[in-house]
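#data-curation
PF: Archiving a pair of folding outputs for the training set. Convention for this channel: one message per protein, sequence first, structure tokens after, nothing in between. First:
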Amino acid sequence: MTCVICDACKKSIPSPHRERNYNTLLNRDLCLDCYGKLENGIKEVMGTKREFHVNEHNNVRKDLLYRMTR
């Protein structure tokens, strides 16, 4: 049996199935709650921008992910 622990909240994820009850971004595992918080944070930051740029979106995602998983 595999044990996966969320890198943001440090909680164990029971019966882990990728993309079903946890997600992996940049070699970091996130439970669905933390993944939702990450996506909401990205929406808040990108919502203030006048234009959408993919590189800027990826940088915001990376920065927020690294901050959440310290």
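PF: Second:
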Amino acid sequence: MRLALFVLLFLLSGSLMAQIENEIRNFVDSTEILINNGRRLLIKSLEEDNPEKANQVYTYLINASGKDICRAFSYDEQMCLSLIFENYQAWIDHAINFRQLYATYNNSRDDNLYSFLRQYLIRMQPDLLQRINTTALTDEDKALIQLFLHLIIIDRADDTYNQMLKDFKRLYPQTRYAVFFSDYMPGVRVKAGSAFGMGVSGIFPTDNLATGFSSNVGFNMSWDFNINNIYTSLYMQAGALHVNTPFSMYNNFQTIDFDNSDSFSYIDGGLIMGYFVVRSKHLHLAPFGALMGTNLTSNLYTDPDDEKYEVKIVNTFSYGVGLKTELKLFEYDLHNFYGYGQTGKSYFSLKTEVGYNVLAKHNFEGFRGNIAYVRATLMWGFGNF
């Protein structure tokens, strides 16, 4: 008896599932079909340069979908269509009430309507901007619509967009579009980049230090960070300075004679901070200040235990000023497996720096002087040049 009851229930449940499957297969959402056909007709009307008919289709779809869960357009499409049909008040209302309205739109459509509307706005941009300027809208409304239109057409927050956004916020600090800016529009883009490089340095002692040691070519490394107009760099440069004039020096152990065949190890390294007076797509120009440590030491001994007997002509904190120029050689897309497969920018550039460092302390009065330098560095950068 129990077995028969179990079999009966199993058959009934199977029959019920089959019935539901058939209903799902045969279900037709007439509103969805209407909207999809209407969207295609809207594109066709605009392609045929018939904006009046396109506006009629648009109005019909808005009324047909109403408060239905299946909206006819995404929020982005709605904003573009409001501009195309010059319904500026609807555009303004949607911008002011962004948080309330955005979630009510179907923002997951994957057809090509938005791409088509963007291309259509590109074609009508000159006339549209002229008509916007002749409307009775406030200057704030006009400025925001122009900013939005630039973003849609360029399809990214470029330097022009950044400047337009800065100007808008300066002119209208208490804007009624604050939520629209914070939740929808891109913020001011930070122009950031980083670069690593290696190159050669010309090291030039001055004053009495130049009497004792000759200039020479050395090696340098740097790691630069550029954020908007601020330039920073961690660097080091090293080389050998040959004795220029023979001299004798006591090293707490014995008196040593140095002649022209001897060389001293030179190294300095520290932090550079500057300001870009020019930061274009291909050229950098930035005066800077620098803080570093500087060391000029003899090479008498090979045993590390005897290092304390080396003669340190210079071993001090230093500070200086200089000027950096950098020329971008070429740029390329850097493909990666991160960031959802998006590409980044990378570049190679040639950086030159000239500067003058002041030594804060001198171990020997006979070698008072400072260091001038010229550096040429091949840089490999990531991000914005």
